[in-house]
Amino acid sequence: MKIESAARPAEETFPISVRDDLQDVDLAVSTSGLGRRFGSRWVVRELDLAVPLGSVTALLGRNGVGKSTTIQLLLGLLPPSAGSVEVLGLDPQRARHRLFAEVGYVSERRELLDDLDVRGLADVVAEVHGQRFDPDRFEELRKRYDLDPKARGKVLSKGQRARLLLALTLAANPRLLVLDEPTSGLDVLVRDDFLAGIAEFAADETRAVLLSSHLIEDVGRICDRAIVLRGEAPAIQGDVEDLRRSCQRYLVRLSGVIEPHTPIPLPSGACVLERDPRALTVIATGAAEHVEAALDAALPVAGIEHQPASLREAFACLTAGQGASA
């Protein structure tokens, strides 16, 4: 679906060295200049993203940056205000019913038809997905997850609902699995079941997973790619490990004391992770020698040590505003 593009906001300087070339890769999802506004407010703006087949891609970003809106645009649940989107070769607005036969979707709300029992819910999903739905596979998963076939949706616990939705989705054999905060609020054992099911699904390279999550530990366990939404700044995308390696952690020991509310001049692409009167922990992108030189010029530095950032620290840095606390 092609719509007149919105004006692109001014780009910030962001020295990140991630390179991401997907020109020769088959894509499950692609967008160009995708945008959605509500009234005069753009929630998603000029978004270019790609989800390759054979990948587990994380959709990351701080609260309110438009992750759920992006997913609704990809599924045809919202029409775009600008740009184009293609999912499994289809326009989500014009071919929504065809698309839903090949897409599995689990939202954070974990909605079920509460008056139907487990078997009845399986019948509904089978009707939507037709021959793609594998009843034997569903029965195998139902038993694995210890789900009573006669239990109605309204009596299932949060964990049981999550396991049931996963079983229904996997039995439908979708080509694309879209998950919006699927493990939020789940206990450790249910999260492990869920992540194991996703990994099992993704082993087939003709499929793809797009996973929105704020649980960075989950992303590190099962995702090989990430798309980082940053509000009006251009999204960053690439291999998870490349994104992590694009950031370094710097322990900056100070020769003087910085008062708690004193602004700290930081180089571009840097943010403060921890702040003490005589020390700072800074996460930054860019070459280490350039970052250290910029820190030394801006602060009363007594010494600097640096080491690789964790995935959580890299996410904090990549989504923080210039000079912000992560």
- Main sheet? 6 strands, mixed
- The strand count comes to 14
The overall pLDDT average reads 85
CATH superfamily of the largest domain: P-loop containing nucleotide triphosphate hydrolases
Helix count, DSSP H or I runs of 4 or more residues: 10
Radius of gyration, taken over Cα atoms and rounded to an integer in Å? 22 Å
Question: How would you sum up this structure, described in words?
Answer:
This protein has 326 residues and is an alpha/beta fold. The protein has ten helices and 14 strands. The protein has a six-stranded mixed sheet, sandwiched between helices. Helix 4 (135-144) packs antiparallel against helix 5 (158-171) and helix 5 (158-171) runs parallel beside helix 6.
Secondary-structure blueprint of this entry?
Layout: E1 27-38, E2 41-47, E3 50-52, E4 56-60, H1 67-74, E5 82-87, H2 96-100, E6 103-106, H3 118-129, H4 135-144, H5 158-171, E7 176-180, H6 188-202, E8 208-212, H7 216-222, E9 225-230, E10 233-239, H8 240-245, E11 247-254, E12 270-276, E13 279-285, H9 288-298, E14 301-308, H10 311-319
Parallel strand pairs: 4-8, 4-9, 6-7, 7-8
Antiparallel strand pairs: 1-2, 1-3, 1-5, 9-10, 11-13, 11-14, 12-13
Descriptors for this entry?
disordered N terminus; 4-stranded antiparallel sheet; alpha/beta; 326 residues; 14 strands; 6-stranded mixed sheet; Rossmann fold; 2 domains
Short description:
The chain is an alpha/beta fold and about 325 residues long. It has helices spanning about 65-75, 95-100, 120-130, 135-145, 160-170, 190-200, 215-220, 240-245, 290-300, 310-320; strands spanning about 25-40, 40-45, 50, 55-60, 80-85, 105, 175-180, 210, 225-230, 235-240, 245-255, 270-275, 280-285, 300-310.
